[in-house]
From TrEMBL, chains A, B:
Pfam families: GalP_UDP_tr_C, GalP_UDP_transf. One of its GO terms (molecular function) is zinc ion binding. Its EC number is 2.7.7.12. Zn(2+) binds at residues 39, 42, 112, 163. Keywords: Carbohydrate metabolism, Metal-binding, Nucleotidyltransferase, Transferase, Zinc. The active site is at 165 (tele-ump-histidine intermediate). The lineage of its organism: Bacteria, Candidatus Moduliflexota, Candidatus Vecturitrichia, Candidatus Vecturitrichales, Candidatus Vecturitrichaceae. Binds 1 zinc ion per subunit. Residues 4-175 form the Galactose-1-phosphate uridyl transferase N-terminal domain. This is Galactose-1-phosphate uridylyltransferase. Coiled coil: none annotated.
Length: 333, 333
């Protein structure tokens, strides 16, 4: 059973994989060796993954066979284990609990050689419907306090398989980064009686300098104080703290905004590896909170930029967001 | 002039290099091309760096000529600029100030092909004396609130030059990571009336499982909830919140502890790239605070491990610290 351990100084929880611990010789081997070889996520290879927990499939097809357009399966090598109680316990002065949680993989398409820019718009939209369906199911589990939804694209961004996929991790704790964001947004709201994200949207629409694009429901900006070069956020214009509450039309426009943004990045930065993360309110908050605003943060991983930041937690960004936004906005797509 | 900008949600300050902004084509080029070519840090090339602000040198030698064993120079491409006022100002809802600060490079030895394990113990000790001398000088400047002292070793860890060197950055703000640490330590102290780090030292000495080594003044441990595999901390046994207050004998034992630890890492992990950071109390705190305890955090950068963490700020560590400590403790050095 993996463990969740709390750093007694910062209060940060980390997952420690106690049962598949990596030995020194495991580092340095890249996971790319699977490239070109067998892919468990490809259509036809359904039997090689754990059984699906969700699939959008041809009504005449059977579960765990071909005939799907989107599939969600438990991660074969999960960071957390779905069964068991939390068993919160002290270890001397330290705090830990069982690494209980869900770790699922959303396979975005049965086709191996696809990227988000190459996918059909409806398949990108379905990815968001898939996230929503899984969140609605996972949040019924009272043990969970937060669901992280993210995509790693490219091995430098942490992807271990090439086939287009994203991940969900349901956690029994709220990550420190989310906690800091919630507290900051709440402090702003208490002071101004307005949502900080709504204010950001308003200001970026007025100033234009960091605006990448807009459609009826979403705005894409390079944020004012980005940690990383070409860091880009996609925010709903309509205030909502809950990603899974989107109406159907909104997911189409979200898919359009995300696909266009990654197309822009691919053209400006030559297909960079990237991470995107859905920042969503923790579970068990009041259903809608006025001070928080869900959004997506996209971070291209540009070679050798992150060494210093990784070590220190302090960020030096060599590309002003106004420059990044100009490059992204002006590229032909 | 670079800018310090504050993220309005998290309160995190980031440095934005507005004047030497990186364009898309600047990414992807590694900085390794200097390898084997001319090195400005080598003995004899003193004229190619900015003039030294500190040197330990042969009393008969002239400044900025050969004859030194340690040299500190301003960074030729500083992230911050030393001249000017802070000029704190709003930009609509956002907050910024001039990127005023010092960015210095400490050249640890005139010899190019050296690593900390290969250096003479007295040269490693001098590195710490050099940090101390520069901190004592920089802290006279009322504009500065924090001095970051760190080393990037290897290009994957962010080093742009191979020659052994470390860096000091004096900042007009306290980084969020330091603020979180100070607040956490202070909360613990208010509750327990003891320093959390002193308690950690006591517990690790008792339990032994995460202990790497000890000498008269320092203890080396893998922390209970490490973010990264083989993350290792060096802590003074004697409570102190201020690195620069060490007595002379302490720096010898600190040099011994650091050199041995990196030697262990080099053997166990085959010369990994790494970062180390001195965690020190902010300036202008009361001179000694009972709740904070300065220390060094060393993080080997093990290939491809950090992609997910980099993007999400949430850490999954595949190596339990008890395993890491065992490998490091048991290797022959």
């Amino acid at each position: 059973m993996p463990e969740l351990r709390k750093d007694p100084i910062s209060g940060r929880w980390v997952i420690i994989s106690t049962n598949r611990g990596k030995r020194p010789s495991d580092f340095g081997r890249t996971i790319e060796e699977r490239r070109g070889g067998f892919c468990p996520f490809c259509g036809g290879n359904e039997a090689t993954t754990p059984p699906e927990v969700l699939a959008y499939r041809n009504p005449n097809s059977l579960p765990n066979t071909a005939g799907w357009s989107l599939r969600v399966v438990p991660n074969k090598f999960p960071a957390l284990q779905i069964e068991g109680g939390l068993h919160k316990v002290g270890e001397g002065m330290f705090d830990k609990m069982n690494g209980v949680g869900a770790h699922e993989v959303l396979i975005e398409t049965p086709k191996h050689d696809m990227t988000i820019p190459q996918m059909e718009l409806k398949d990108v939209e379905n990815m968001f419907w898939g996230f929503r369906d899984r969140i609605l199911d996972l949040k019924k589990d009272e043990r969970f306090k937060y669901i992280m939804v993210f995509k790693n694209h490219g091995s430098a961004a942490g992807a271990s398989l090439e086939h287009p996929h994203s991940q969900l991790i349901a956690l029994p704790i709220v990550p420190l980064v989310v906690q800091t964001e919630m507290e900051g947004a709440s402090t702003y709201y208490n002071y101004k009686d307005r949502c900080v994200f709504c204010d950001i949207i308003h200001q970026e629409q007025t100033m234009q300098a960091r605006l990448v694009s807009e459609n009826d429901d979403f705005i894409v900006i390079c944020p004012y104080a980005p940690r990383f070069p070409f860091e880009t956020w996609v925010l709903p214009k309509h205030h909502s703290s809950v990603f899974e509450d989107c109406r159907k039309g909104e997911y189409t426009n979200l898919a359009r905004a995300l696909q266009q943004t990654i197309t822009r990045m691919d053209k400006v930065l030559q297909d960079p590896p990237y991470n995107f993360i859905i920042h969503n309110a923790p579970l068990h908050e009041e259903h809608e909170v006025p001070y928080y605003h869900w959004h997506i943060e996209i971070m291209p991983k540009l070679t050798k930029v992150a060494g210093f930041e990784w070590g220190t937690g302090f960020y030096i960004n060599p590309t002003p967001p106004e420059d990044a936004a100009t490059f992204l906005r002006e590229i032909d797509i």
